[in-house]
UniProtKB/TrEMBL annotation:
The family this protein is said to belong to: Belongs to the binding-protein-dependent transport system permease family.
Residue span, ABC transmembrane type-1 domain: 99-315
Entry-linked PANTHER family: BLL4140 PROTEIN (PTHR43227:SF11)
Keywords: Cell membrane, Membrane, Sugar transport, Transmembrane, Transmembrane helix, Transport
Residues that span the membrane, as ranges: 46-65, 107-130, 142-163, 187-215, 248-268, 295-314
SUPFAM superfamilies in alphabetical order: MetI-like
Biological process, per Gene Ontology: transmembrane transport
Domain of life: Bacteria
Region (Disordered): 1-39
Alphabetized Pfam families for the sequence: BPD_transp_1
One GO cellular component, as annotated: plasma membrane
Entry protein name: Multiple sugar transport system permease protein
Length: 326
């Protein structure tokens, strides 16, 4: 009996020790797993920031920091006053300069012509998406001007639009008097803008075609079944469905018109006649490269940046409101 009584007293102790060890091991593994899970969740939260950090650093170093330096430099003087703070003197001088006021007026003209610059590639992309006869050929032809250098485009149209060029020869054959396309101050800016639209709408066309790839074709099928005309399909189906794409094209086209026309202006008109084709970017180049006035050029650059920022934000707001109304 003593032996029999001793045996049960030993087994619970051994079982307890074994259970305690198992429980401790299980608790240890659970704690390790929770720590790994916690570490994994922290890593997942930090991963996006780590991936974005190099691009953000490049933007800050190569974009934002030079921008801030340029803004600060615009409040200093040129020549003998180089590095000396002059307040808003550069900005006052800019708005007193008739050439700069002409450049700002031409910016207003670009804003007015912007819907045309966006509508042309939008309509052409619509016809290609609807597979009009020869759409594959048109798609390649429409994009071809986008690969040409602005200098080459400007030289080609200088020949075409010359006073004794082919265009006036054709007009003369039908009894129309020759027109000085690039020498008339009232026409020259329209010619340069038209050439720029022709040379660059291929990129916007590609963006529109990418937007059409996300369009729900069942909406078009439903519109056809209901007997909707092409203008009705455009206004009630395509434009609302491509609202984000249209916003993107509007903003990028506006930026391109304000900052990418220097080559055409330089080759086709050099700012003339009578300064009628000046744009802020051309004015900036003149002040920096020929007049050696970097502080004044920095002030003009700051104004151009503010114009692009304000116009871009207004475009986005107006397009969002139009999309909600549709």
């Amino acid at each position: 009996m003593p032996i029999g009584n001793a045996q049960p007293s030993v087994r619970p102790v051994q079982a307890g020790r074994g259970g305690g060890a198992a429980a401790g091991s299980s608790a240890h593994r659970g704690g390790a797993r929770s720590r790994r899970a916690g570490g994994g969740s922290r890593a997942e939260r930090l991963a996006p920031y780590v991936l974005v950090a190099p691009a953000a650093l490049i933007i800050v170093v190569l974009r934002l920091y030079p921008l801030l330096l340029g803004v600060n430099f615009s409040f200093t003087g040129d020549g003998e006053q180089n590095g000396v703070a002059v307040g808003f003197d550069n900005y006052r001088e800019l708005f007193e300069d008739s050439l700069f006021r002409t450049a700002l007026g031409n910016v207003g003209l670009l804003v007015l012509l912007l819907p045309v610059a966006v509508a042309i590639p939008g309509l052409l992309a619509t016809f290609i998406y609807l597979r009009v006869p020869g759409h594959r050929f048109y798609r390649s032809v429409y994009f071809f001007p986008a690969v040409l250098s602005p200098v080459i485009v400007g030289a080609i149209f200088n020949l075409l639009l010359a006073y004794d060029g082919p265009l006036n020869a054709v007009l003369g054959s039908v009894g129309v008097a020759p027109v000085d396309w690039l020498g008339d101050p009232d026409l020259a800016m329209f010619m340069v803008v038209g050439v720029h639209i022709w040379a660059t709408f291929g990129m916007a066309l590609v963006v529109f075609l990418a937007g059409f790839a996300t369009l729900d074709s069942s909406l078009l099928d439903a519109a056809r079944v209901d007997g909707a005309s092409l203008p009705q399909v455009l206004w009630h189906v395509i434009i609302p469905s491509l609202a984000r794409t249209i916003q993107f094209v509007f903003v990028t086209t506006m930026i391109g018109m304000l900052t990418s026309m220097f080559g055409l202006l330089f080759v086709m008109t050099s700012g003339g006649p009578e300064g009628s084709t000046y744009l802020p970017e051309y004015y900036i180049w003149i002040q920096q490269g020929q007049m050696n006035r970097p502080a004044l050029a920095s002030a003009a650059s700051t104004i151009l940046f503010v114009i692009m920022l304000v116009v871009g934000m207004l475009q986005i707001k107006l397009l969002e409101r139009a999309g909600r109304d549709n």
